[in-house]
Amino acid sequence: MNSNIDFQVIDWTTIPKTEHPGETGAATWQTLQFPGLRVRIVEYAPGYLADHWCQKGHIVHCLEGEFVSELQTGETHVLTAGMTYIVSDDLSSHRSRTEKGVKLLIIDGDFLRSSIT
């Protein structure tokens, strides 16, 4: 399987939006899927709380606004515009919440698979 990605420019205004309800509020995703790689612009509406604890690895970059990345251990991290977090698959249970709304660039894929078995 060829997982190379040719050079391309992405005009996010042409990528359809899909809505994903949270425990409270909703998330809007614009998604590009490549073999072994997913790239998304995700917007959480004010009052959003994820409806699950996620085990997937991500690179999450905050483009606008502010959100809290909450770990199931109780630890929390506030991220604002210009900040990023990175985690591999299966290394933490995490979920996002925001009071005022946020816009994120999220990248995930096979390269974030945990080496823990």
Automatic annotation (TrEMBL):
It comes from the Bacteria. Gene3D superfamilies: Jelly Rolls (2.60.120.10). This is DHCW motif cupin fold protein. It comes from Vecturithrix granuli.
